[in-house]
Automatic annotation (TrEMBL):
Enzyme Commission (EC) number: 4.2.3.4
Molecular-function GO terms, alphabetical: 3-dehydroquinate synthase activity; metal ion binding; nucleotide binding
Pathway: Metabolic intermediate biosynthesis; chorismate biosynthesis; chorismate from D-erythrose 4-phosphate and phosphoenolpyruvate: step 2/7
Organism: Desulfurispira natronophila
Protein name per Swiss-Prot or TrEMBL: 3-dehydroquinate synthase
Family the entry assigns: Belongs to the sugar phosphate cyclases superfamily. Dehydroquinate synthase family.
HAMAP family tied to this protein: DHQ_synthase
Pfam family, one: DHQS_C
The entry's keywords: Amino-acid biosynthesis, Aromatic amino acid biosynthesis, Cobalt, Cytoplasm, Lyase, Metal-binding, NAD, Nucleotide-binding, Zinc
The 3-dehydroquinate synthase C-terminal domain, residue ranges: 180-322
Amino acid sequence: MSSLSLDVPIAPAPSWSYRIDIEDRFSSLCGYSSKRRIYVITQENIWRLWGDLFLQQACLEPASVYMMGDGEHYKSLETFEAIQNWLLAHGANRQSLLVAFGGGVVGDMAGFVAATYMRGVDYLQVPTTLLSQVDSSVGGKTAINLADGKNMVGAFCQPRHVHINLATLSTLDKRNYAAGMAEVIKYGFAMDLELFEYLESHREELANRDKSCLAHVIYSCCAIKSRIVAQDEKENGLRAVLNFGHTIGHVIERWGDYRRYLHGEAVAMGMVAAARISAHVRGLEHVQIDRLQNLLEFFALPTSLPLPFSVVNQYIGKDKKSSDTFVRFVVVPQPGQWEFVDLPFPFALEEYIGE
Ligand SMILES: O=C(O)C(=O)C[C@@H](O)[C@H](O)[C@H](O)COP(=O)(O)O
């Protein structure tokens, strides 16, 4: 595969942009190594599988490597503090460079550490899961969770570069692969009909992790995301479309103590609920909800809400898109099109989707 590249030009400073490279190997980072101390934040499992090759191909000699725990529940204030102390103990300074080597949990944590350590240091994203390659490594949303709310403490902090190596998807377990596919389906169903149809017609190839299909899909998602982030870096409006399925998805993750469901699984259930709300408020046809559900279920993703409506109603007010009087939902009147609707708060899910 020849490599693919995209730029993410951030407004209102169009001169400032960073690249996303999609390759079948780890990109060389020699240029960085010679100039500054490098600190890698990763997890045992991914580092055992890919760490040596990464250091060799990237030509890196890190000052130190930090192993985070595996799972969304490690995106916590405790881990955040431990990493800050580790950086200080290992001599990291303002010129140091952090490298997030792993999935979305590593990327969100490393990004937030980079945003705050000594008031901000540079970082690179080297995403190794499908979810992080198509979504979380791009756009600079960094955050950690509170017990009562997902991604509640964070910052917008763009990476200097996103280096995607498709080869790492070969060792991703089935459940995490499917979870990444949920975010891919989000881009298609809510933002790009052509992509959604491609996913439907190439589902077998994608289930078999065909590299050229994956390269196409990852490039398409990154292209959509970079266009949106370039216009609305700090989510003053447009960017919230990327939250399709997340409003209820985040409640599900929190309800499961960030352990029961992977982020992508919660988003899969949240998207079907949001599609049902879309049918109620914007007339999305039921046959289109079935298309969404079939595609998600093809990848063995859950699609029925696992929690009482009352829990959704109780926690939805903590969503970052909520105000005192409404909850903002991304709805889909037709596949590939989206709208925001503000539903009154206090919220009653049963009014939009029958029990
Ligand atoms: O980048 C964004 O903007 C997104 O909303 C992408 C989401 O898929 C992602 O999960 C994001 O981290 C959720 O953001 P949040 O603001 O709802 O915490």
